[in-house]
Amino acid sequence: MTTLETIHPAKPATSNDLKSGTLLQLAPRMAVDREKYLALSAVERQRLECIAIARSSYTAVLISKSAALLHDLWLLPCPDDPVELALPCGSLPRHNRHAPGRCYRKTMVGDVETIDGARVVSIARAVADVARYHGFRHGLIAADSALNMGISPAQLQAEVDGLGRVHNAAAARKAIACASSLSRSPFESLVRALAVELGLDAKPRQRVAPGIEALLIEEAIIVEIGPQAVLSRRSSRTAYLRSLGYRVVQFTPEQLAKDPDTCRRTLHMVAQAHAVKAS
Length: 279
Known about the structure:
Structural class: alpha+beta
Order of helices and strands: EHEEHHEHEEEEHHHHHEEEHHEHH
Helix content: 40-55%
Protein name: DUF559 domain-containing protein
Oligomer: single chain
Strand order of the largest sheet: 9-10-11-12
């Protein structure tokens, strides 16, 4: 991990480096080497900012998507998301609650872990938070990822049950109920979430032909996800699957990330066309 420097009056060299631009201040008490920071990917920068803000606070705990980042759970790319925090006492801070780039939630945090010096809720709690605060789609992606990491559905369900009567717990329960350890990417999980919203049956990694596994919807629609260049190279495979009677829908990660609702409408139209033909 890129090293964070503590900003302190007793460290004049750090102050000089901040003034010269060698260091970049990420949080009130944390700075990082500017060149190393700029060399990081967008996700790595986001993760480092979460750590810096958490370590700048004396008590705040990372929750929801910010906790998911530190646990390496799948998330859709959202570079403008604020760092999500909560206080152990369950209240909002008296000061700085509306500081730029931060979002404090009024919630109890439960068990707390430490990752790279930052306080963070558990994986199961992060999944529940993501679903509660960001909706079913994001929750299913995080839940699939947690199951891939070995967290059990019972652990996820126990975390939601332990929250009691809280806002949008239904989204968390639905995400957990629909989660699968077979999903191969956050974008495949997103397509399954879109299918569930449409009332369609979606199964990951189904054997659709000898040596071929795919995301299968309504036992008849195969969804392929990948960069356009990869999908183009698979044209013969796609033609083969269509010759078997499957409808094949293709999405790129960019399409799913930027405009999931359009992808949802595409799924809906294909499913309707299949239903009409089958009737």
